[in-house]
Amino acid sequence: MIRRAGRRTWTPPPSTTVDVKLPDSLHALVELLAEEAHDNWARQRLSEGWRHGRRLSRLRKRHPLLVPYRELTHAQQEADRVVALGTVRAILRQGYTLQEPAGR
């Protein structure tokens, strides 16, 4: 940990999940979790009084990403996918198993 003028600088440890292979059957789960993550983030912001705005304004509590997941750009969706993918890989790394529901 490095201290600079009263601030701490933190470096996260290297990922232990980069080598975890994701079965093709779990890609739909990653997408579902990415959308859920966005929706959870949006619900939290809305409950704090934030509203959609063309530009980010912390003062006015406006945010351009307060839209349905499907309306985000591919790059914006990808940020949520990265988190979801990391979560699923961490679950698998710990030895848990995930499988597609029957009938899909």
Report the mean per-residue pLDDT as an integer: 92
Helix amount, in percent? 25-40%
Question: Which class of secondary structure composition applies to the elements?
Answer: mainly alpha
Report how far the terminal alpha carbons are from each other.
48 Å
Radius of gyration, taken over Cα atoms and rounded to an integer in Å: 18 Å
Spatially, the strands of the biggest sheet line up as 1-2
- By DSSP (H or I, 4+ residues per run), the number of helices equals 2
In short:
The protein has 104 residues and is mainly α. It has a domain at 31-93: Globin-like (Orthogonal Bundle), CATH 1.10.490.
Write up this protein.
The chain has 104 residues and is mostly helical. The chain has a domain of 63 residues: Globin-like (Orthogonal Bundle). 39% of the residues lie in helices and 10% in strands. The chain contains two helices and four strands, in the order ββαββα. The strands form two sheets. A two-stranded antiparallel ribbon has the order 1-2. α1 packs across α2. The longest helix is centred in the middle third of the chain and has 21 residues. It starts with a strand and ends in an 11-residue tail after the last helix. The model has no long low-confidence stretch (mean pLDDT 92).
